[in-house]
Design a protein that fits this description.
Keywords: Membrane, Transmembrane, Transmembrane helix. The chain is mainly alpha-helical. It contains seven helices and no strands. Helix 1 packs antiparallel against helix 4 and helix 1 runs parallel beside helix 5.
Length: about 150
Amino acid sequence: MKCWNCHHLNNASDAECFMCGAVLYSGTPKAHGSLYVFVALCVFLPVFSAAGGILHVLPHFGVNASQLRAGGAPGIIPWILGTAGISACLYVTRTPFPLKVQLLLSALVVLVCWGAYIGFSVGLAKELTAPRHAVGAVPSAAVTLRA
Ligand SMILES: [Zn+2]
């Protein structure tokens, strides 16, 4: 079979590549169960968001979550991030890399997705609470809701 690493064409019975010594797989390599933990973490992202989870987390970042809720945010972003993360994690399970590398890649995907989600939410909330929104005769909604 064709080597995934150097594309050398080996015999079907070869367990390792004749050219580079890479381990050859017949069919799809079996994904390790622990990799699906990362898939689950990506599934959890939009669920967490839809449940309003970020509104409970944001105050820990010094952000007024009520402004975010008032803005109807973060909307579709967590769904995009979650879906992208799920696809990326599932893709990693199909790569022929050693488990250690797969776990590292999956963890990286999850970190990027959750990081982007939290970063986006914090950024949006700060944007909504920026001084120019609060300027006016009427007290800002943030103050009203916080009281
Ligand atoms: Zn090879």
